[in-house]
Amino acid sequence: MSAEPSRVSRLEPYLNRAEPAPTLLKLLVGVQLAGIREDAGFAQDQAARAIGFSPAKLSRIEAGKGRKPPVEADVRALLSLYETGEHESAVLLRLLQQAGEPGWWQRYDKRLMPEWFDRLVGLQEAAIAIRTFEIQYVPGLFQTSAYARAVVQRGLPSATSREVERRVELRMRRTDLLHRPDPPRVWAILDESVLLRVLGSREVMREQLAHLVKLATLPHVTVQVVPLDVTHASAPAIPVTYLRFGGTDLPDVVYLEQMRSATFLEDQDETEEYRVALDRLADEALNPRDSQALLASIAKQRYP
Fold first, then answer.
1. Type and span of the H or E element at 132
2. Domains of the chain
3. Most buried residue, 43, 221, 231, 256, by CB count within 10 Å?
């Protein structure tokens, strides 16, 4: 049984991307395989048993998880089971091949890029919109190198100077997406305490706030601040990043960061809760113009 033509036709634009986007393509391959399976009338566990996979393996393939894309032979076996047409199979296999091309971040040491962080960076590179809320630090995409260095040194006090610099280099490389020709829409909400907490030195903070003010003037960047005197703010207790992708094939993803790991949410009911929470928090925060004024005021008064 063939997948509906519209399903595969939506994939063809992804074949012409100039830059490798392995995380995006792995997700697309997984989502399409799940859709083709459903079109063919197979339940996930039924399909897994039919070709000798564990249900967990097929679930992982369809979720697009792991550093590497699925093995081509496994994908071919699934397409054969689902009696997928030649054109649909060819497009999906081309996507799979491109999913194996490493992104720039995958050239870093795995100690700097554990699997969960590899996935976050790949998702950010692929997103058309990124929303984030921070309660302790300036968001990583907005950090200066000096501020990033202070953050790394605080979080990893025993790290060697070489490791610190490699981590700072990686963080700075991530910020390049803000300045590429097709940048994502980035909307950040910060608690005011982030701006008052001195990391590195007052000079570091002065530079960081000036950088925030500059970024906030970019047409694709929005910065809002939740003032300390907003005592009823409905802020989450941990940092939240909400990612949205182009088209209708991929679900929104929520990234919740912990000390040494992270959680990714893709279920629509769960991600919708965070979208609503971020909307509510944006309403409680200062508007972008007043937020810029507060940034400038804090820089002038606290870090002259």
1. strand 129-134
2. 5-102 (1.10.260.40), 108-139+175-302 (3.30.870)
3. 221
